[in-house]
Amino acid sequence: MGFKELFEMQNQLNERIVQEHALHNEDLYDKRLLALLVELGELANETRCFKYWSVKPPSSDSVILEEYVDGLHFVLSVGLDHGLQDAIKEGTVVSEDLTSQFLCLYRTISELQGKKDTQLFSRLFSEYLGLGHLLGFTEETIFKGYYSKNQVNHQRQDEGY
Question: What does the pLDDT average to over 132-143?
Fold first, then answer.
C-alpha cells in the first residue's frame, strides 16, 4: 500500500459521504480545513507536548496513531480538493520540538483557507508526514492505522453516523 492507495480510499469515502448526505452542491474545502485544524488539536492534546504545567504522560501510541490518521483523512481530502491523486512521500521535520511542528502545521493549514495552492498543499502534506515521523510512526504503521480507521469510518456511515 502507498499514498496513492490512501488517496483512492479517501476519495471513495468522500464520494460516499457526499452522496449519502446530499452534499453535491456544497463547497466543503474550508470545512475540511477546519476539520483538519480540530483533528490536529485533538492530536496535540493526546501528545500533551504543550502541557508544560502537567506531569501526566502522553496517551498511548495507539491513541496517538488514531488521532494522527483522523487528521490524515482530512489532509488527503484537502489534497483531493486540489485535484491530486498522489503526493510527495518525504516528510519535512521543521523542528525536533513537537510543539513547533504543530504550530507550523497550523500556519500552513491557515494559509490554505479560501485558496487552492498545490505547492502549499505539498508543504502541508510533507509537514504532516514529518509530524508522523516525530511521533515515531513508520509509513507502514501509518498505512495500517489509516486502513483500520477508514473501515471504521465506513462502518459509521453504515450506522447513520
Answer: 95
